[in-house]
Amino acid sequence: MVSMKETDTYELFYWPSIQGRGEFVRLALEEAGASYVDVARRPESEGGGVAAMMKLLHAPGAAPFAPPFLRSGGLVIAQTANILLYLGPRHRLVPGDEASRLHAHQIQLTVGDMVAEVHETHHPIGSSLYYKNQKPEALRRAELFVKERIPKFLSHFERALAASDGHYLFGDDVSYVDLSLFQLLQGLGYAFPRATAAIAPKVPELVTLCDRVRARKRIAAYLASSRRLPFNEDGIFRRYPELDAGATS
Amino acid sequence: MVSMKETDTYELFYWPSIQGRGEFVRLALEEAGASYVDVARRPESEGGGVAAMMKLLHAPGAAPFAPPFLRSGGLVIAQTANILLYLGPRHRLVPGDEASRLHAHQIQLTVGDMVAEVHETHHPIGSSLYYKNQKPEALRRAELFVKERIPKFLSHFERALAASDGHYLFGDDVSYVDLSLFQLLQGLGYAFPRATAAIAPKVPELVTLCDRVRARKRIAAYLASSRRLPFNEDGIFRRYPELDAGATS
């Protein structure tokens, strides 16, 4: 393995126009104050753009399956939770002991499972079809997601937070999982505003955590910057009001 | 963290009547020759059964979200890929260097993504509904899964194997990922026999890998034992012939 000097710059490869799964990595890099380039958002003339990402995706040998992926020195690391598993200890975004690291990764993987289910609410038949071509199925799926899955996932995260003896999941130091929980709640609030508002009183620890993360100096600066893309209907969290209707049924 | 002596016995918690996600862990434990108890398959009168699993799932504090989970000394580790991340280095089922471990975990997570999509083929609307109540949607989803997703995932794994300079993903020593790829192919062959037979000639490395894994002494003994549950229509891989029909369209 090629080691990376502390001063080296990470290269993040992700779709340039959406928050998507890449946002979980961006938030960790921002909180860490790490030097990174969001490659696909740079001009093609400077070696950026989607073309640069595709070049790596289609490289011979063992290429990533899909974005996001991170280049760090000689390593190319894919899968969101795997990237955070790598970044966490390097930037003190997770405690040093094995039990905490495994627990952090476990919750991160469950965040990822929920994100995948969010995607399924608007693409229950297949990601190669437009939403309009799977809308009846999406309505059925989203109704169950709002009614059953949002409460199940969020109460799980709420319990994990309640078990902590500090302001964050692992005491009083923020971890990459706290950042991801913040992002998850932002996405849910965008895509399912009614359902999220309805459940908020039942998950006070999560709501407070979001406030704490949002107020952190580097995160606040990032959220106010042009580096933070707005949510939109091309990403994973999409505001299709008809899918949020189950909240009142 | 409480350390575990090499001679201690792992406790695996998973549904007692299906292979499911637990099988990826079982295969790793079997190949390692590790001492383990498949807790929910033991009698309730001896502290086993689903009741023992539920007790841990509903324990106060930060409990797992879902089975499988593994108790190892004082640790309780959930999420299939996370359990394998833990077991791999302890039983030499992954090379020691960081780059290989991250790469192994990355591919394992992609195996997990495909397994989740397999589940969606028979439950595209929600896991709380019976298959018969989401069959039209399942037919649509499975057709795309067979046509687009199976080739995309399997060609990805095939490329990763082809990039290896040995018989397995990381040379000539078997890794937990090789075992998982074997299991994935067995499941696909059970659930989608026609689609799997159709694609087999295009993924020769994967087919050869399966033969090698199946012939390993401990794996062969395990597969012939009563510890190996048969596939069935309660698990993740289900043989619903109508969902395999896309193979010929």
Describe the protein:
The structure is a homodimer. By secondary structure, chain A is α+β, with helices and mostly antiparallel strands. Chain A has 2 domains: about 10-90, Glutaredoxin (3-Layer(aba) Sandwich); about 100-249, Glutathione S-transferase Yfyf (Class Pi), Chain A, domain 2 (Up-down Bundle). Chain A is built from 9 helices and 4 strands; from the N terminus they run E-H-E-H-E-E-H-H-H-H-H-H-H. Chain A has helices at about 20-30, 50-55, 80-90, 100-120, 135-160, 175-190, 195-200, 205-215, 215-225; strands at about 10-15, 35-40, 70, 75-80. Chain A has a 4-stranded mixed beta sheet with strand order 2-1-3-4, with helices on one face. The longest helix of chain A is centred in the middle third of the chain and has 28 residues, at about 135-160. The model of chain A has no long low-confidence stretch (mean pLDDT about 95). Chains A and B meet through strand 4, helix 3, helix 4 and helix 5 of A and strand 4, helix 3, helix 4 and helix 5 of B.
Name the features:
homodimer, 249 residues, alpha+beta, Glutaredoxin, Glutathione S-transferase Yfyf (Class Pi), Chain A, domain 2, 4 strands, 51% helix, globular
Write the layout of secondary structure elements.
Two copies of one chain form a homodimer.
Chain A (H helix, E strand, L loop, with lengths): L9 E4 L8 H11 L3 E3 L10 H9 L11 E4 L2 E4 L1 H11 L7 H25 L12 H28 L13 H16 L1 H7 L4 H12 L1 H7 L26
Parallel strand pairs in A: 1-2
Antiparallel strand pairs in A: 1-3, 3-4
**Mean pLDDT score of chain A:** 95
Anisotropy-based shape of chain A: globular
Number of helices of chain A: 9
CATH fold node name of the largest domain in chain A: Glutathione S-transferase Yfyf (Class Pi), Chain A, domain 2
List unreliable stretches of 5+ residues of chain A.
none
**Largest sheet data of chain A:** 4 strands, mixed
Proportion of strand residues of chain A = 5-15%
CATH architecture tag of the largest domain in chain A: Up-down Bundle
Distance between the termini of chain A: 54 Å
The domain count of chain A comes to 2
Largest interface: A-B, 46 and 46 residues
CATH class of the largest domain in chain A: Mainly Alpha
